[in-house]
Amino acid sequence: xxxxxxxxxxxxxxxxxxxxxxxxxxxxxxxxxxxxxxxxxxxxxxxxxxxxxxxxxxxxxxxxxxxxxxxxxxxxxxxxxxxxxxxxxxxxxxxxxxxxxxxxxxxxxxxxxxxxxxxxxxxxxxxxxxxxxxxxxxxxxxxxxxxxxxxxxxxxxxxxxxxxxxxxxxxxxxxxxxxxxxxxxxxxxxxxxxxxxxxxxxxxxxxxxxxxxxxxxxxxxxxxxxxxxxxxxxxxxxxxxxxxxxxxxxxxxxxxxxxxxxxxxxxxxxxxxxxxxxxxxxxxxxxxxxxxxxxxxxxxxxxxxxxxxxxxxxxxxxxxxxxxxxxxxxxxxxxxxxxxxxxxxxxxxxxxxxxxxxxxxxxxxxxxxxxxxxxxxxxxxxxxxxxxxxxxxxxxxxxxxxxxxxxxxxxxxxxxxxxxxxxxxxxxxxxxxxxxxxxxxxxxxxxxxxxxxxxxxxxxxxxxxxxxxxxxxxxxxxxxxxxxxxxxxxxxxxxxxxxxxxxxxxxxxxxxxxxxxxxxxxxxxxxxxxxxxxxxxxxxxxxxxxxxxxxxxxxxxxxxxxxxxxxxxxxxxxxxxxxxxxxxxxxxxxxxxxxxxxxxxxxxxxxxxxxxxxxxxxxxxxxxxxxxxxxxxxxxxxxxxxxxxxxxxxxxxxxxxxxxxxxxxxxxxxxxxxxxxxxxxxxxxxxxxxxxxxxxxxxxx
Amino acid sequence: xxxxxxxxxxxxxxxxxxxxxxxxxxxxxxxxxxxxxxxxxxxxxxxxxxxxxxxxxxxxxxxxxxxxxxxxxx
Lengths: 701, 74
Prior knowledge:
The structure holds two protein chains of two kinds.
Chain A: E1 4-12, H1 18-26, E2 30-34, E3 41-50, E4 53-59, H2 71-81, E5 91-97, H3 101-113, E6 118-123, H4 128-131, E7 133-135, H5 137-144, E8 148-150, H6 159-167, H7 185-194, H8 200-208, H9 218-224, H10 229-254, E9 255-257, H11 265-273, H12 278-319, H13 324-341, H14 344-360, H15 362-376, H16 384-389, H17 394-400, H18 407-416, H19 425-436, E10 441-442, E11 446-447, H20 448-474, E12 484-486, H21 495-529, H22 533-537, H23 539-549, H24 559-569, H25 572-584, H26 591-599, H27 606-617, H28 627-632, H29 645-657, H30 662-672, H31 676-700
Parallel strand pairs in A: 1-4, 1-5, 5-6, 6-8
Antiparallel strand pairs in A: 2-3, 3-4, 7-9, 10-11
Helix pairs in contact in A: 3-10, 5-10, 12-13, 12-14, 13-21, 13-27, 14-21, 17-30, 18-20, 19-20, 19-29, 20-29, 21-27, 23-24, 25-26, 26-27, 29-31, 30-31
Chain B: E1 2-4, E2 13-19, H1 26-30, E3 38-44, E4 51-55, E5 58-62, H2 64-67, E6 70-73
Antiparallel strand pairs in B: 1-6, 2-3, 2-6, 3-4, 4-5
């Protein structure tokens, strides 16, 4: 028997546990991608229903209604209106939450108007007893014209029920719950007559939002059915009231709530977490704890990875047959892969903390606490989330700015987020700090190195805030301040959700950035081990001659090192580095660092890997050395160390401020829909970086 | 007594009379901020803004300027 495929769409308000339902249904059989042309995350997964039926499940972005106010929500409408879309569902599963059933049902009634088979999941049913809620399921099923699955995704209850109902989707009624067109019968009659083949509700959605719908020309359609903006707004309000009337009437009979049973954990926690002193105190303790633990916990696995790859490189060089390919593997590929993998611990920890904060409901309280302060700098309380997640990576952070309703606040958030210390800067910071700051403790417990790192984080944050303030004063954009934050009830984060989130985010980061780092490592290796002209080709002879002509006796053991050094200097990469040396010399860098800086304009994390590759190429001794040791031993021609306090500080500042991430620029272009903003960002940030680094070096040297 | 939603004191409950649909986001309407529904002020942010309401059983925080566009009665 042929295998049957059922296409399922999961739709629901934010904070209903929709994603947990998705995770429970699909487990790890998920793929996360993007919708074509836009950067909205597209989550698909599969789920076996019985021996010969499989479901393909798409987890749509959370939305409060079918009236889109962001691109994320637009995705939902575009899919629901387009029967020709390859992902158009056979059945829609609307996920609601038992405590907010009234509000959640609004979206359900809208979906029902589209006349697609729809089933209703009432999630978090384990909280019913606690909240004193009882439901009359048969009555609700009858009124809402659907089948209901009562579930608790966190306790894995009712998931099989959902599967059973999906399997049986053909028996789901497809008629709407209420007649929405009664809000203006005359107008809707006219619509119906003009487009007899279309659902009136679909037409209404097309008129009220910016969605493309079949081949109907929206403009033509709009012009013949035009109403003023405020008239449409009034009608939308009428529609919403009408839907709520129906929902209230239904729930009056179908739901009983014993308010005396409602325990008040939320109120108590809110009182503490949004308290005028404790609220901020707790927030800063949480932040401090996060940064402290990221640095502490990830240093062990990071050192381990660093060391293992150094060994592996030596092992490969000595055990594989000598030749170009072996060189590529030992000097290009292995250090390159090491340079990617070394990120995993920090990124995983950061995403872990961020998803715990989001899942628990605490993030909304932070938004509430910070809004007034942030607004002074032209930001929104909601900017806190991108600014915090910017410590992991600016790319998801900038995408996360999407839920800021006010365009000016959103733009400023997007523009300043790259100043926040992202995890790609961390390896650069970590290695430079360990080179230039002594491993001492002040007051017995505060590590000087940790403190320096903290200062760098604060510096990034301070710069972001300062620039936000300047932009706030400079930009003349008028937009209405629409600020609505849902304050979800507190939940203990679910291990499975957090785990999947961490794995997915880390994976996409490693593979995304990994490709660039990998490609660059190979190019760098090639450029470092090949060169034009006789200087490169005859390096051995030239050095031998020098040793021979030298007036002082030279230990022959240094010859291989000198040769390698000379070769590197005359390789393609050496020539490129020398070319930019005059520009970066005032900052205290030599041409090798110059190469690393140039290559990190693609992605800053390349810095360490590049130096590793360069020093590896230039180091012909068989000793295995970690990148750190190699950097420490690097000296100028006059014998002074390359990485001293002045040049190290200058480099730290350069990396703190410079815009060195092509992916971020690409995302900013997408999100702001113009090249203007990413170009300004690139020029401005790099300028600030150059000037501060210059001042620091000249002042400290 | 008619007043703006922004004028409530913590713990005070009121019934919504009218909302200025031009000036408040549709999302708020969809969360149940509609004439006839109740609203209670739960908390004021430490710096006086935004305000945290329970509107029609939805827990939401909005800014004062938005809450001023909603007329309520005690």
